Amino acid sequence: MKIYSHEKQKLHHPQSYFSRGQMRQPQEKPERLTELLKAPEALGLEVTTAKDIGIEPILAVHDFGYVDFLKHGYEEWMAVDEDMGEEVQTTIYMPHNNAGLGILAKAAKYQADGSAPIGKHSWTSIYWSAQTALNAADSLLNEETNQNKLQICLTRPAGHHARKSAAGGFCYLNNAAIIAEHLRQKFQKIAIIDTDMHHGQGIQEIFYDRKDVLYTSVHGSPINFYPVVAGHEHEKGEGEGYGYNINFPMPHDTDEAGFFHHVDKAIKTIKLFNPDVIVHVLGFDVYKDDPQAKCHVSTEGFKTLAQKLKALDKPVIVLVEGGYCIEKLNENLQAFLSGFISEEK
Ligand SMILES: [Zn+2]
Question: Of 12, 160, 161, 182, which is the active-site residue?
Fold first, then answer.
């Protein structure tokens, strides 16, 4: 098992976000990564610092104008006048505007909701989050034997809500999509299993008409729950991608057995698909005491989840995404890691 991370992911420090008619205190804080990094340390596992693989794999998924906005938007925003808030934060979403008339128009084009603010150091963390994920993918591309069958990327900020050209839901670059696309250089079939509390509508959108990347997600029903506009069972893909997008929305307040009932169904679809590589979007926000939780997974449940993935006996890349019960991230990640370590070949 190999674990990747990068300290620069701590620089992104949101000050507020807007959701459900309220300005809120950020839940997606730098301390999340600090807590996550305690888990491998407690288990005596080495964490490899991600190296720079470059911008090209990012631009293979995201539009250049959007990436340029993430990188330079803050400076342009602050240069408008003294009346600007200290984070790029749109109050308008109009994805089809031409974004040629200034930074406020760009923000209206590239920020899909009020929960992806951009501060001075956000791009650095966003970039290194993608690089952390890419390091795991790159190791599979570059080795002949796939020795590193189980790889875990401690990534922050998360990615699964990010669209081709819009940020949202604490997400900026879609790490799962970026590495799935990167892996396609060598591998024919990639399966993405998303067990974060929220549906990863960004991944769904990016691969909706493709059959080479299966997306299957277990998440809280999107009825009155983020991302609200996607994540229903009837969204199955289109064109040759029909049948390769499989959603398992859970009713709110689902117990742990119910969660695993849905996970088992998702795993069944993966077995049928028979992928070369599995990408797992791991959200600790399914944990019973998480402020975002609409189900009740225990600490021990994360170990069970890891064991189920390991039993598939394929290369697995795990991307740690949601999880806002900060004081439990260390313990919950330790539980997950112990599921991968146990009976390791
Ligand atoms: Zn989530």
Answer: 161
Distance from residue 177's CA to the centre of ligand 1 (Å): 16
Distance set, CA 186 to CA 137, 141, 189, 210, 279 (Å): 10, 6, 9, 17, 15
Asked, for residue 278, whether it belongs to a domain, the answer is: yes
* CATH number of the structural domain spanning residue 331: 3.40.800.20
Domain that holds residue 201: 2-58+121-341
For the chain, give the percent of residues with pLDDT over 90. Answer: 92
User: For residue range 111-147, what is the model confidence (pLDDT) as tens digits?
Assistant: 999 999 999 999 999 999 999 999 999 999 998 766 6
Centre of ligand 1 to C-alpha 24, Å, is 16
- Clarify whether 234 is annotated catalytic: no
